[in-house]
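Q: What structure does this chain adopt?
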Amino acid sequence: MNDEEWLTNRAIVHRLRVRYAETDKAGIVYHANFLIWFHEARDAAFRAWAEDATRKRYKWSGHFQEIVARGRAIGSDSLEEAGYRFLVVDTSCHHVSPARYGDELDITVVPRRTNVAKLMFGYKVLNAKTGRRLAEGNTASVIINPAGQMLVRMPAEFAWIFGEFPADSEPAAKAYAR
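A:
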């Protein structure tokens, strides 16, 4: 396996409708809103991946186990509650065609597997009705641990994002160590 690879089998599609407040006077979406939608879609993907892990009887470790036991979804908020912080170090968005007020959009999120402590995602935005490609982009965030230190290696607790579930459902720390 390469040190980095796009995990298209982990793609999640998040649908949203363009709100009036997200457009300019011509009814066209203001360009910066695509980055906000990337974040919203990424949070939806975190929840979907965590639900998948729970269905597969993944043994959550530490604080994650407490969050799941309380019936809460795992998203950016609960990852931060567990003490992790995410510093955005790179974003890109290539705009192809405009989105307009009222359009339904499908935003596909694909994680990029890497051994370094960086969460990398690719995004594709399509008009849900026409299938027209509107934008594509990427985000990358480094991970800061609960002690406030920037991590070098991906924390074992994040294996579920990449669909790595130990066969015997042992905690991820052993399964993800490389």
